[in-house]
Design a protein that fits this description.
The complex is a heterodimer of chains A (about 110) and B (about 110). Chain A is built from no helices and nine strands. Chain A has strands spanning about 10-15, 20-25, 30-40, 45-50, 55, 60-65, 70-75, 85-90, 105-110. In chain A, the strands form two sheets. Chain A has a five-stranded mixed β-sheet with strand order 1-9-8-3-4, with no helix packed on it. A four-stranded antiparallel β-sheet of chain A has the order 2-7-6-5, with no helix packed on it. In chain A, a hairpin with a 6-residue loop joins strand 3 and strand 4. Chain B is about 0% helix and about 50% strand. Chain B contains no helices and eleven strands. Chain B has strands at about 5, 10-15, 20-25, 30-35, 45-50, 55, 65-70, 75-80, 85-95, 100-105, 105-110. In chain B, the strands form two sheets. In chain B, strands 2, 4, 5, 6, 9, 10 and 11 form a seven-stranded mixed β-sheet that branches. Chain B is globular. The N and C termini of chain B lie far apart (about 35 Å). In chain B, about 35% of the residues are buried. The chains are: A mainly beta (about 110), B mainly beta (about 110).
Chain lengths: ~110, ~110
């Protein structure tokens, strides 16, 4: 079973920020939080990851609560091309460790 | 750089036939993975190779074999295909920093 809980679907207006929540209350101290997305039936695409500090890159920001039991992925200005399934994954940063995908959140961005 | 490539893109097999799915990466990555994705589901790990010369079972290895031919290539073989193996198969690779897995475009397999 996936170690994360995400809402099954969310809607967002184009140009607005999309805030995708994730609960990972059983996360271990050495587990990172990763976010991937999958557009249509393409291969998953890495977005961002973090251990305990907030992270930002050119695609998104990741906010992790102080107790690390939940996190939020923020797409600051959602576009139609951001419509996808978003997966929140916790994983030990170790070679050969699989990404355990749950069902993710389907984000629908509309104009 | 092509990244991660997979062949074929589509395949239809009859029950009992065998085939090999090919995967190659040009990023000099040590680790490679095979996942399957069934409709409406997340990806599940079949096999992985943490480095050249090593392979290990993942969550759903039954009915599959793998070969890490060299650092670039990691193949997945179905010896006797079954309808339950109808799925989309994704190959992925990962570098030493282990910060990002790069996925191929997938192989869509139907077993009738």
């Amino acid at each position: 079973d996936a170690k994360t809980t995400q809402p099954p679907s969310m809607d967002c207006a184009e140009g607005r920020a999309a805030n995708l929540p994730c609960n990972h209350s059983t996360i271990s101290g050495n587990e990172y939080v990763y976010w991937y997305r999958q557009i249509h039936s393409q291969g998953p695409q890495y977005i961002i990851h973090g251990l305990k500090n907030n992270e930002t890159n050119e695609m998104a920001s990741l906010i992790i609560t102080e107790d690390r039991k939940s996190s939020t992925l923020i797409l600051p200005h959602a576009t139609l091309r951001d419509t996808a399934v978003y997966y929140c994954i916790v994983r030990v940063n170790q070679a050969g460790t699989a990404l355990i995908f749950g069902k993710g959140t389907t984000l629908s961005v509309s104009s | 750089n092509a990244g991660v490539t997979q062949t074929p893109k589509f395949q239809v097999l009859k029950t009992g036939q065998s085939m090999t799915l090919q995967c190659a990466q040009d990023m000099n990555h040590n680790s490679m993975y095979w996942y399957r994705q069934d409709p409406g589901m997340g990806l599940r790990l079949i096999y992985y190779s943490a480095s050249e010369g090593t392979t290990d079972k993942g969550e759903v290895p039954n009915g599959y074999n793998v070969s890490r031919l060299n650092k670039r290539e990691f193949s997945l073989r179905l010896e006797s295909a079954a309808p339950s193996q109808t799925s989309v198969y994704f190959c992925a690779s990962e570098g030493l920093l282990r910060d990002e897995q790069y996925f191929g475009p997938g192989t869509r397999l139907t077993v009738t």
